[in-house]
Specification:
Elements: E1 3-5, H1 10-22, E2 29-32, E3 36-39, H2 41-57, E4 61-64, H3 68-77, E5 84-86
Parallel strand pairs: 1-3, 2-4, 4-5
Helix pairs in contact: 1-2
Length: 99
């Protein structure tokens, strides 16, 4: 993902995340936010839908390397509290599907 994730692209993000979770052998899902500059409420909803699906399917979901602006949005909205967030530069190296 890159740039602004908003009402125009949130559905694509959600579909990609759900598709990645449904792949056989998905051991973990990492969403790389290092090139994302903005998330609106529909994007946050998409991330939460992916998290809920991951909780049912069991693979851990991690948000990796969010930009300063995205980190602020996640914190202000309280969404940061429900996700595992890492700034490890190697976290977005794929073990299985990455979106």
């Amino acid at each position: 993902m890159a740039g602004e994730v908003d009402v125009a692209s949130a559905d694509q993000v959600q579909e990609a995340g759900l598709a990645a979770l449904s792949e056989a052998g998905c051991l973990r899902l990492t969403i790389d936010l290092s090139r994302v500059t903005f998330l609106d409420s529909t994007a946050l909803g998409a991330l939460i839908a992916i998290k809920n699906a991951a909780a049912e399917a069991q693979p851990p979901l991690t948000l990796a390397n969010p930009t300063r602006a995205v980190t602020k949005i996640l914190q202000i909205t309280g969404v940061a509290q429900i996700f595992t967030i890492t700034t490890d530069p190697h976290a977005s190296e794929p073990v299985k599907p990455q979106i």
